[in-house]
Amino acid sequence: MSLILEYLEKHPKEAKRLIGITAVQFQDLCSHAEILSQQKSEQVEINKIRINRKGAGCKPKLSIKEQVLLTLVYLSQLHTFQYLGIQFEVSESTAHNIFHKWV
User: What secondary structure letter does DSSP report for 60?
Assistant: First the structure.
């Protein structure tokens, strides 16, 4: 779990200053993002020609909540993807891909 997410869970009143939205709005956004992600993965699964069995492959390094948080931090703070990669313990290219996935 990223340090920012841990901090937001302990201090929800600071969310507006850190990510530009309130903690309640962040929770709502995360729940909508999880629904959207599930719908998209179901759609991909329907059209997919499977070579490996279901569940094979790499698991995502960040949860959907952390991915949304990474996107919001970038939009509100305009840090580099290198900085976000260090903050969220992923590579610079992974931070870039996550941001563009959710935008």
Answer: P
Q: Note the pTM of the prediction, 2 decimals.
A: 0.86
Give CA–CA dist 21/16, Å, rounded: 5
Residue 77 lies in a domain: yes
Beta strands in the chain (DSSP E): none
> What is the DSSP-derived secondary structure letter of residue 54?
T
Residues 6+ apart with CB under 8 A from 2: 62, 66, 69, 70, 87, 88, 89
Q: What is the pLDDT of residues 30-60, one digit of tens each?
A: 999 999 999 998 888 888 887 777 777 788 8
Structural domain for 87, as ranges: 3-48+59-102
